[in-house]
Design a protein that fits this description.
2 domains; alpha/beta; Hexapep; 18 strands; UDP N-Acetylglucosamine Acyltransferase, domain 1; 208 residues; Trimer_LpxA-like_sf; coiled coil; Hexapeptide_acetyltransf
Amino acid sequence: MFSADERSNRLRTGILDDFVGGLLNDVERARYLGLPETTRIRERTKIVSPENLVMGEHCWIGENTVLDASGGLEIGDHTSIGLNCLVFTHSSWLANMMLENHPGSDLIERKPVRIGKGCFIGGNSVIMMGVTIGDCATVNPLSVVTKDVPAYSLVSGNPARVFQRYDEDYLRAEAERVRAENAALRAEAQARGEAPVWGAPARRRDAQ
């Protein structure tokens, strides 16, 4: 039933990691995979060639995301990748076209992907091989990123293109706005006798 060749044994290790990972919480799963202690990996995330993945501190990876690190993948500090995202660092399209889609084909192409620090990759997005995403960039949900993304920019669409650029002053002002709104919401919740929570409590329907 079980094959004993090198490829099968290598794949079986990944299958075992997926199985064990399904029994762990997001912090335990990251620790099991040898990632930084501050990283959180949600359930059903798949990492291809984890030995080629370099991940920074305080990263968050959403459910059902596939991180293909076979061609090299770097993810900077404080970056989040949403649910159902696909990050590719290899392509077999030419092997398919040439009818050479077999294991070990020399028509499989690999190029590294680099995602900077402080990035937000929205859910259901696709990052194609060879792409570099600059620091503090945002990729809107449902985007397909086929070329490099400048730092401090927002991209969206298929193929993704730049819709907005921002600087540190803009980000600082937005952070102050959100902190003030969350503080007001927490104060309202405490006034109602509710236990304080991190972040912002959900808005009450009668307050909207």
